[in-house]
Amino acid sequence: MPIKYALFENNITSNPDDYAAMVQISGSADGDDRVQDIVDQGSTATKPDILAVTAALKLACQRRAIRLGIVD
Q1: d(CA 70, CA 63)
Q2: pTM of whole model > 0.70?
Q3: Measured between alpha carbons, how far is 35 from 50 in angstroms, rounded to an integer?
Q4: Domain extent at residue 43
Q5: Taking each helix axis from N to C terminus, what angle separates 31-40 and 47-67, rounded to the nearest 10 degrees?
């Protein structure tokens, strides 16, 4: 699967021949789309099970970030 990108002048360096690649976004998917992809692949887990796990994972990440002082 190719990744679409474009080159832009790199303003971080003083070298005029230095460029930075930037991925070109060509679509989007929300959490429900990704869960449906898992279900469509033939997962033995049901959509409600996957939604419950992803919600729990999101909450666990938020709590850890608070505990580590990364966010308030």
Answers
A1: 10
A2: no
A3: 7
A4: 5-67
A5: 130
